[in-house]
Structures are given as C-alpha cells and as structure tokens.
Amino acid sequence: MNSSSRATRGTLHTLPRMATDTQKALAAQLAEDAAARLVRYVRVDTQSEEDSESYPSTAKQLDLLRLLADELRELGLDDVALDDNGYVTATLRSTVAHDTETVAFFAHVDTAREVTGANVNPQRFRYEGGDVPLGSSGSTIKPSESPQLAHHEGHDLITTDGTTLLGADDKAGIAEIMAAVAYMKANPDVPHGTVKVAFNPDEEIGRGVIPLPDRTLSARSPPTRSTDRRRARCRARRSPARRCACRSRDARSIRAGRRARC
C-alpha cells in the first residue's frame, strides 16, 4: 500500500458518521410525532392498584388501551385486538419477500400509584439552561440535582406542572412505538419483517405479563412471566417511602420522546 492509499484510508477511518439531511428530517418528524402523542397519552389517568385482584387492576387503564386499539386500526394494522385482561395486540405485516424474525414492540400503559396520575397538565418548552420551574407548584428541577439537563440545552422538554407525575414511564415508550409503526405503515417501501405490537396494563404492580397472550405475539423472545412475579415480591418488600422516592424521578422531567426510568 502506497503512502497516498494509507493517507486516504486513515482519513476514512477518522471521518465521523454524519446523518444526511433526509435522515435528520426523518428523525425530526418521528420525534415530533412521538412528542405530540406523549402529550395526549399522559392526560389519560391510568394508575394501577396493587390491592386489586382484577385484570386490569383498574378499569381506567382501559380508557387508554381502547384509544390505542382504535388508533392502531386507523393506521391500518392487522389483527388489532383488546382482550378481556386488557392486552392490546396488533400486527404490522412484513414488507419483504424473504423469511425474517418477528419482533415485538412492547410497552405498558399503567403508571405508579405513589403520585397521582389524574389531571396531568404536561408542559412542553425549549430548554435554554438553568433551573426548570414546574408550573406554579413551587417545585423546580435544578441542574445541580439533575446534571443530565446540561446535555439538553436547545432541546424541547416535556415536564409535569409539579402537581402530578408525568407518566412518561411508559407512555413515552407507547408514543415512540406508535410513531414508528405509523411511519412504517405509511411507507411500505421501508423494508422490515413482521412487527407485533403489544400494550399491557399493570406493569407497575408486577403483574404486567402474567396473563400475557404469548401465542398472539409469536415473537422471537416473548417476555417471561417469572420476571413480573419476582418484581411483585420485590415491590412488596419495599417501603412506601422508598417506592415514592424512586417514582419521583418520573414526576420531574422527560425529554420529548425519551423515558424516565427508575
């Protein structure tokens, strides 16, 4: 290899990966769709209840589950169903002729009970640095307590007004899934295999996948029921104060399209 070839090769290895204008436009389109959906979804109260013995544990979770089922039908997905236990499932057909693995997009609708999820009033704004006041509640997100804020200057943020949780766990995930399948359904030239969509209740109380319709999903690696059973035992051992402190992160701030997880 001559010196010119070595120099060219070195240059190729050091050039950063740069998104094209088309990729940037698509990312912005999907982010805006997901953010708009998140703002709508968090307004639906979907708190679960640990002491309930029904599936779902609260009837109000069905309000969002029915809405999601309707939206999936409007998008044109196949096999859209809402079963007796509150599980929404749907199928986005493959756009390629060859065999591919089936994947599942999965998220839960319920929110934690430690902070109210009723009358959520999301605030969307461009963050320019400094403290973030949460409406007129007197609560503030401080960069000294949330150092990740420094990485989001110039970005849109979506927060609670400080009187409720936001519900981004996991309604941000739901919004991202809906934005993704909406784009793929509207653009059949995008190659992909079969995609299963599933939205479940009661994850926050450790019962999210106990009556999960695995056969309906038919994905490569469906969730295991033992996971939620372990979580249920773990949550039973945690004090209310510890659970509240843990979930308070969700009541703070969420960047558009991202989730706050405990």
Layout of strands and helices, then pairs:
Layout: H1 3-14, H2 21-41, H3 61-75, E1 78-82, E2 88-92, E3 103-108, E4 123-126, E5 132-133, E6 140-141, E7 156-159, H4 168-186, E8 195-200, H5 214-217, H6 225-237, H7 240-247, E9 253-255
Parallel strand pairs: 3-8
Antiparallel strand pairs: 1-2, 2-8, 4-7, 5-6, 7-9
In short:
With 262 residues, this protein is an alpha+beta fold. The chain is built from 7 helices and 9 strands; from the N terminus they run H-H-H-E-E-E-E-E-E-E-H-E-H-H-H-E. It has a 4-stranded mixed beta sheet, with helices on one face.
Question: Can you characterise this structure?
Answer:
The chain is α+β, with helices and mostly antiparallel strands and about 260 residues long. The protein has a single domain, classed as Aminopeptidase, CATH 3.40.630. Helices cover about 35% and strands about 15% of the residues. It has 7 helices and 9 strands. The strands form 3 sheets. The protein has a 4-stranded mixed β-sheet, with helices on one face. Strands 4-7-9 form a 3-stranded antiparallel β-sheet, with no helix packed on it. Strands 5-6 form a two-stranded antiparallel ribbon. Helix 2 packs across helix 4. The radius of gyration is 21 Å and the shape is flat. The N and C termini lie far apart (about 55 Å). The N terminus and C terminus are likely disordered.
